[in-house]
Amino acid sequence: ITDIIEKEYSSIETLEDVTDRFGLNALYINRLFKNEKGETIYEYLVKMRLNKAKELLATTQMSIAEIGYAVGYKTARYFNSVFKQKTCMTPGQYRKINKPEE
Predict the structure, then answer these.
(1) List of residues 6+ apart from 22 with CB closer than 8 A
(2) Angle 21-45-95 (CA atoms, 0-180°, nearest 5)?
(3) In this prediction, what percent of the chain has a pLDDT beyond 90?
(4) Where are the alpha helices (DSSP H) in 38-90?
């Protein structure tokens, strides 16, 4: 499951996008995943997306909206909301703090 998420984080829309490949109930697989990893599949997916977004914010000139789309968010507004909720700063603030020295 982690391999699928790490490779396809930007195109996964639902839990079933991951779990259908295993032919088992999504809730059952999610429970197993949480028991093993200590977080749900969704929480792991968000973590993967935000880690990649942080990397892109710090190393590219892509716009914040482009980064949000690149990591799998359908709207820039939702990307900003999730980013701020999880990091306590906006993507723009994160970029400013983590901009490489010129």
Answers:
(1) 1, 29
(2) 150
(3) 81
(4) 41-59, 64-70, 76-87
Look at the block and give the residue holding tokens 């929480």: 43
pTM, two decimal places: 0.89
Closest C-alpha to 9, from 35, 41, 56, 40: 41
Q: What's CA 65's distance to the chain center, in Å?
A: 14
Is the CA virtual torsion 47, 65, 85, 94 positive or negative?
A: positive
pLDDT digits (tens, 9 = 90+) for 43-91: 999 999 999 999 999 999 999 999 999 999 999 999 999 999 999 999 9
Residue 17 identity (one-letter amino acid)? D
Instruction: Please classify residue 74 by burial: count the beta carbons closer than 10 Å to its beta carbon, then call 0-12 exposed, 13-18 middle and 19+ buried.
Output: exposed
DSSP code at position 20: G
